[in-house]
Each structure stands twice: as C-alpha cells, then as structure tokens.
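Here is this case:
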Amino acid sequence: MVQIIYYLHKQEVVRFGQLHRLVTPITQKELTKRLRELEKAGLLNRTIYAEVPPRVEYHLTELGKTLIQPIATLSAWAEQNYHVLKSQQQHD
C-alpha cells in the first residue's frame, strides 16, 4: 500500500491502468482490493467518469497526504541502513 500512496503523491491524479503498471507485481484484483481499502480508510478518493470506455481516477485525500512525510522518513532510514540489515539477514 505504501507504493500506491507514493505514486498517488508523485502523480497527483492517477488512472487505474497507470497505477497497475507502476505498482508491480500485483494483479488487477489485488490492486482493486488495496485501492478500496485505502478509499474506505479515507486515504484516497476515486472519481468515476461516465465515459466510454469508463475512466476512473484516484488521488490522495488531505489525510492521505499526511502519510507522505512518515513514508519519506522511513524510506530514508531504510536506504541508510540497507547494508546493515542485509548483513544481518545473511548471518541468520
């Protein structure tokens, strides 16, 4: 789900097909499930356009945007400590 939030932040508005290409590997069914969970939690909004073919766009809510800083902090920590973590895994 972190990947989904990250890409929604970077792109601001993302269509389902774009998101499916960016968040790999994931099935369409699993991506749909994750998006519904995020929507139910109030972290993203889904906009459905009455077009042919149907168009659905996703974007972060204000609440979802509050996750960006903690995710960035966690990502920076993981990058800084990658070698230590990798080394410890090899010793297990």
The chain is about 65% helix and 15% strand. The helical segments are 2-11, 16-22, 28-40, 62-65, 68-91. The first strand starts at residue 14 and ends at 15. The chain has one domain: 2-91.
